[in-house]
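hey so i finaly got around to running the thing on Outer membrane porin, OprD family from Pseudomonas migulae. pasting the sequence first so u can double check i didnt mess up the copy paste, my clipboard has been acting weird all day
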Amino acid sequence: MSNTNTVVTLALGAIALSTQAHADFLSDSKATLGMRNFYFNNDNRDGPAAPSKTEEWAQGFMLDFKSGYTDGMVGFGVDALGLMGITLDSGKGRHVGSSMIPSDSDNRAVDEWSRLGLTGKVKISKTELRLGTLMPKLPILVANDGRLLPQTFEGGQITSGEFKDLTLTGGRIEHATGRGSSDQTGLAATGGTRESNAFDFAGGDWKITKDLTAQYYYANLDDYYTQQFFGLMHTLTISDNQSLKTDLRYFKTDSSGANSSGTSGYRISGYTEGADGEIDNRTWSAALIYTAGAHAVTAGYQSVSSGSNFTQLSQGNLPDKGAGGASLYLYTDRLIQTFTRAGERTAFGQYAYDFAGVGVPGLKASVIYLSGDNIKTATGGTQKEWERDIGLDYAIQSGALKGVGFGWRNGKSNSEASRNQDQNRLIVSYSIPLL
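ok and heres what it spat out for the 3d tokens, dont ask me to read them lol
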């Protein structure tokens, strides 16, 4: 946090230099108070591990302040993110591993928890440097927001739009705070049990035409892996209310540092060729999304090579149980499974409907089914799994409760590689603008 404090101090010092700078800093500032009420129920329908069900209910508050920039060729600003969670219900035996709510010393759910993130920012022309608390949304790193409070990272990120139709991004991440924790941890790869101290990344999005975008990103998690991502997205407009989007994604992930040398703790769990825990993976996917008015149909296929599981940043195997919870830039990252096991081949299809098409704006529904097979095992055989997810969302459109959102997620998974599960999530959310 020392780097964050340095940038924040510089920004505040610059703000104090003139009345005009101070005015610009405040006039463009925005603040919102987000509230999220979250009920989570995951029922393990088989397997000997206890407990058989995770069931928790909590209320979250998210105060998000984003300042403007001071006047001048170099603009300075400060953002702040205050997060607080309050446990409403989580009895002993139904709270597991800080999936959503942190645990106390007796492994019970805490009554409340909170954290504060500060981000100093500097802007020159169309280039912005952010240093402090970050929530990246990049192909090689996606902050998880699948429970009450979001996962956050600490580090620096620079984004530049100086060149027309080209956005460049780079940076370094050094710490993470899990969605069910108030404590920072180091970094790790999926299945790794020892901390890395640096995740470096760089890449860009090039809008070749108004309908065609190409992406390339490179990332290195010290002592674990290097990863390259290639992406291509194209949208074909068929008519005024019809389009066909093509989305191609390819990840190339290779071992690096201690993982290459087989150092204990930096090896990953799960199937690897040679049973050596070394990362060696190629994952590609292709998806077609056909939209016609209120209807959207997605069909796709994903292939994971057999060298090892697909991996990205995940702190789930570190000692801090609340560090768990990671998101992947994959269509197969669903409510329960991710379909990223070594050798796995997955076909998926989704149907979504916006009820504004029949005069009910704010109401949306979707259902997706995924089927994976050819999962490699240490015995030489293969396994398979499937998942079906349903999503239903409604946002009140008018009146005193305008903007209040209701969401329901239901997932059902049958897997030969893990426990069969049923999952339900109920979410009520509301955001109040303060500035």
